[in-house]
Each structure stands twice: as structure tokens, then as C-alpha cells.
Amino acid sequence: xxxxxxxxxxxLLVAGATVAGAGTASARTADARTTDGRSADTRTAQVKTxxxxxxxxxxxxxxxxxLVRMPSSADSDPALxxxxxxCLETGMPGPGEVITDQPSSRSFTLLNSNAGRVTTLRATKxxxxxxxxxxxxxxxxxxxYAQIKQRYGINALTLSADHPAAGTAIKVVSGYWxxxxxxxxxxxxxxxxxxxWTWKDSLRxxxxxxxxxxxxxxxxxxxxxxxxxxxxxxxxxxxxxxxVDNPCEVDENGQVTVRQGINYAEETYGIVKCFGTxxxxxxxxxxxxxxxx
Length: 293
Fold this sequence. Notes:
The chain has helices spanning 5-15, 145-152, 269-272, and strands at 57-59, 64-69, 78-83, 98-103, 107-111, 117-130, 136-144, 157-158, 169-174, 179-194, 197-205, 219-222, 228-235, 248-250, 256-257, 263-267. With 293 residues, it is mostly beta strands. It folds into two domains: 5-53 and 164-269, Thrombin, subunit H; 60-159, no CATH class. The longest helix is centred in the first third of the chain and has 11 residues, at 5-15.
């Protein structure tokens, strides 16, 4: 989870960074070493990659997010918006708490490829939200993918059904800050603990993705496939051990590791197994391991 907007802005000002197009919100941001967040990460493979921009990215009042679809979603299905569980408008779910089919009228600013505002999308309900095992909220909209494509020319991002691989080049795209961070998947964490919450099989970035408050909920995009493999959610800010804003890594033997300045995301491939025909949440589907209410 990320610090308030004031703290994030202070960090940027001290670093002499320029925030392009930042509205009035809060969550995480990008590496200011280049205009699009890229850095000289020597682990990035020289392979043909897909262009990653802001088309389909959304900005929330306090976080980032994205318009997403499952590999099996139909164009006629009601569209989904994904952000973090800790970005839920009714407050952060407690440990063990799972929310499904909760009415919502939350609005999202849809962006085009150049981070320009396209329109406002509106939710009809929270399909799923939790901060247990993962950190995700999925909103269902009152419009379909086909309607959004026809009216605004914007396609949803597709969630990958596969577990990501270490070393993969990725981009973290923040709709709140209108910034893109570039780095690689450094590895995976058996358990990531922060305050009262614990997340399973979390994704750890290489250092150049030094996201800040406001980037919570940003999609993590595999630059080779163009698909979403994770959702950005936290980082260790002060070197503290397992406290809020200072997550710690816990291995299978209970050994705790603290990595100050390193940031993390929660994988999303498991979500695919929990949505059926019509983008309906069904936690009883084979292979679905999302926590249940």
C-alpha cells in the first residue's frame, strides 16, 4: 500500500522530478530518470516487444486502474475495471474479508494512448474485492466492451492466464499520474506481509520500477505479450519490518527479508479461472483459488 498524496509529492519535489498531468489524487508514481520512466536495466532482453501506452488505462480518485477482460470474455459482456483492494471506495477490506456483488456507482476516467481523457466510465457493482492472499478490486460497468470500442475506439487490456516468469520485461502504467515505469520481474515472494495483511506469491520488481503513492492498482504489462500479468500494490518505503507501507518477504521456512526501496505487485493469472460466461464471478469454478466470503 502507498503513502498519501502529500508524501508522494514531497518525494517528487525533493528529487526534482516533474509530474506530467497529475490530477488531484494519491497512490504510486514512476522512475523520473527518463520521460517515460525507462532506465538502463541491463537485464532487459533485446527482443521484439509490443507497444505499451495508456489506451485502456483508467484514473480513480485516489488510485490507478485499467479496463480489463478475460481471455474468454465476449465483446458483448459488461466490461470490468481492475484496481487494488485497498483502493475500494468503502475502505480497505480487513484480513479475511471478501466482498462480492456490492452495488457501486464509482466513476473512472478512461484514457487514450496519449494519456488524454476520453470519457467517464461508471460501475454498477463491485464484482469482487479482497486484500487477503491478493490485493484486488474488480468493478463491473454498465457498458460492454463493444460499446466502449464503438464509442471511443478503446480496447480493454487482456489478463494473461499464465504465471509470469522471472526476468520478463514489464511496464507499470499509472493512470493517476499518467506515467509509465519500465523494469523487469526480479522474482517472486512466497509470502509478502504488510501490517495485518498477507499476500501469496507476490511479484518483485527490479529497482527501476520505484513506484509511489497514486500508482496503486496500475496494471503490470508483459511487454512481450502485451497482456496484464499483475497489479501494482506496494513497496517498502522506510526499511521497517512488516509494517504498513513497509512490507517484508517471508519464505517457506519463515525467514523474513526486508528490502527497502523495492516494490511489488500481485499476480492476476488466477483471476481468469474465477470468471465464467458473461464475465460472471463464480468462485466455485475449477481451478479458482481466490478467497471466498
